[in-house]
Design the sequence.
């Protein structure tokens, strides 16, 4: 007897009718490898970036290594979702993996921060499809009632990558060379075998291509989206340096606003062929929570782009030690994910969990805002754990809420929108916060040196020719007037502690500003998340639980029991 005969017909459009549980597990392995590669890339690079920037001579330009990746991934996330709705998940997903692997190889061969930023952009083109299409493929294969069980594995991948990534990044950054290449380059080369394995599994095991749309690609929407995002993201990255009232900044904002208007007009005209079909936004839960998604993405990615710099520059930790200091955050993400997913699936309630997660992140970011040069490391670790627990509650539950409001024919675009809006926020957050940090360093460091003038230890160091004559200390003495060289921070390793203390105090104060702004953004997200009325989901397994097509879910499992 077939599975269909035994259990009844699976939900239409899920794709489950052609894949049994063993097949789903194999496909899940391929999806998990792809997710692991994309998630690992973000965490492994964050730990190694200071070493990379010092080696390539451009610490102050490191924001572009992140923002170029996120800009291209933002633009292509929505594009991948729509392409997969038209041409099927398998070929589009495998194309994304191939581009990502190519970008990884190019990054490993980069000879300057400029070329690294360009090649990170190539990586981002591929990364746009890895996360959004993983959720879309899962949605094709598994009905809503069973989906959170598999999504928990996705959450676990992010947790594992958050553990392994910083440690591996620190390990590679600490190697002088490996197999003839600088150690940090292997933080990129490691993606090659993972990507090949993921692509082979998906190419051979994903056979079902349900809900294929017959309309054409929204080319006008793609071009308008580029016109909108590129000027806006460039403006927020350069705004703190140029000045927000500078003509160049205002011109970029105006161009971005014009692109936004063109994009909205293109989406309305394209109807069902739109990159982000307008019917999806008629659901208030989908619309409002994607707004929360943008704010949370900006605050979290922005704050967490600065935290590794605090640990390495201010506290003097090695990349590996800084990676290990992020373990409490990882533990928080994993534990919260394991609690939140089953609870929401069982109870059907998600709003309280989401609000609790954002509230915890508010507490954590304001806690980060108190970190100084002499703050004990255990306080940083506890704050990171609180942050991780909040992240684990927030994003997984937000995805579950958004999924319930997306019709099957829009599932690729809908899942792409979740990643799309989060990446928009994250890209803007990293660009703004890193620019804010580097823009504030000069004034904060100069003020710290003025305050240190009455410190006897500092004055004794100034009066010692043997100290002031050293090359590293000369750099610090030049920073007293706000001329802070940040293209290469390795001089801190050889500087006199008495002269370095005001410098580190200034760096910490500049970072505090970033964390406080992040906390304010999360407060806004908390208020916005409280607005929609909760539409309680039917608990998984309950008779009549809703399916994605608006019908009611039966009790039958998918495939073999």
Sequence:
């Amino acid at each position: 007897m077939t599975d269909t005969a035994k259990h009844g017909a699976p939900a239409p459009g899920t794709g489950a009718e052609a894949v049994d549980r063993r097949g789903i597990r194999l496909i899940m392995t391929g999806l998990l490898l792809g997710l692991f590669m994309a998630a690992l890339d973000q965490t492994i690079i964050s730990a190694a970036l200071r070493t990379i920037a010092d080696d390539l001579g451009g610490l102050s330009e490191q924001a572009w290594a992140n923002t170029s990746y996120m800009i291209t991934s933002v633009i292509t996330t929505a594009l991948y979702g729509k392409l997969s709705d038209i041409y099927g998940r398998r070929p589009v997903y495998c194309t994304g993996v191939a581009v990502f692997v190519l970008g990884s190889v190019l990054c490993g061969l980069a000879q300057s921060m400029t070329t690294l930023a360009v090649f990170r952009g190539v990586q981002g083109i591929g990364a746009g499809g890895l996360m959004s299409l993983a959720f879309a493929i899962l949605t094709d294969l598994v009905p809503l009632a069973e989906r959170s069980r598999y999504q928990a594995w996705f959450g676990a991948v992010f947790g594992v990558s958050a553990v392994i990534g910083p440690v591996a990044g620190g390990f590679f950054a600490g190697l002088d060379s490996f197999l003839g290449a600088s150690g940090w380059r292997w933080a990129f080369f490691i993606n090659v075998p993972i990507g090949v394995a993921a692509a082979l599994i998906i190419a051979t095991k994903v056979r079902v291509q349900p809900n294929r749309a017959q309309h054409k690609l929204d080319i006008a929407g793609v071009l308008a989206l580029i016109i909108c995002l590129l000027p806006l993201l460039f403006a927020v990255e350069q705004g703190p340096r140029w000045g927000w009232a500078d003509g160049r900044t205002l011109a970029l904002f105006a161009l971005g606003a014009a692109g936004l208007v063109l994009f909205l007009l293109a989406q309305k005209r394209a109807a069902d062929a739109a990159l982000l079909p307008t019917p999806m936004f008629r659901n208030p839960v989908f619309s409002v929570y994607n707004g929360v998604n943008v704010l949370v993405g900006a605050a979290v990615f922005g704050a967490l782009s600065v935290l590794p710099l605090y640990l390495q520059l201010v506290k003097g930790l090695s990349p590996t030690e800084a990676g290990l200091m992020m373990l409490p955050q990882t533990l928080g993400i994993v534990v919260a994910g394991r609690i939140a997913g089953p609870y929401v699936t069982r109870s059907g309630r998600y709003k309280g969990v989401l609000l609790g997660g954002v509230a915890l992140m508010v507490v954590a970011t304001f806690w980060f805002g108190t970190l100084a040069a002499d703050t004990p490391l255990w306080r940083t670790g506890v704050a990171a754990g609180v942050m991780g627990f909040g992240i684990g509650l927030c994003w997984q539950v937000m995805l579950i809420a958004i999924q319930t409001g997306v019709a099957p024919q829009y599932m690729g675009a809908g899942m792409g929108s979740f990643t799309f809006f989060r990446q928009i926020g994250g890209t803007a957050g990293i660009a703004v916060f890193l620019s804010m940090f580097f823009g504030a360093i000069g004034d904060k460091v100069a003020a710290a040196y003025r305050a240190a003038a009455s410190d006897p230890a500092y004055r004794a160091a100034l009066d010692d020719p043997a100290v002031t004559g050293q090359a590293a200390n000369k750099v610090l003495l030049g920073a007293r007037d706000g001329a802070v060289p940040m293209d290469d921070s390795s001089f801190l390793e050889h500087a006199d502690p008495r002269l370095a203390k005001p410098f580190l105090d200034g760096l910490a104060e500049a970072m505090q500003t970033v964390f406080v702004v992040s906390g304010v953004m999360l407060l806004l997200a908390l208020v916005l998340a409280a607005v929609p009325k909760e539409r309680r989901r039917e608990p998984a397994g309950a008779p009549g639980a809703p399916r994605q097509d608006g019908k009611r879910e039966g009790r039958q499992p998918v495939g073999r029991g």
User: Anything to note?
Assistant: Strands lie at 545-546, 552-553. The two ends are 13 Å apart (CA to CA). Residues 1-17, 540-561 have pLDDT under 50 and may be disordered.
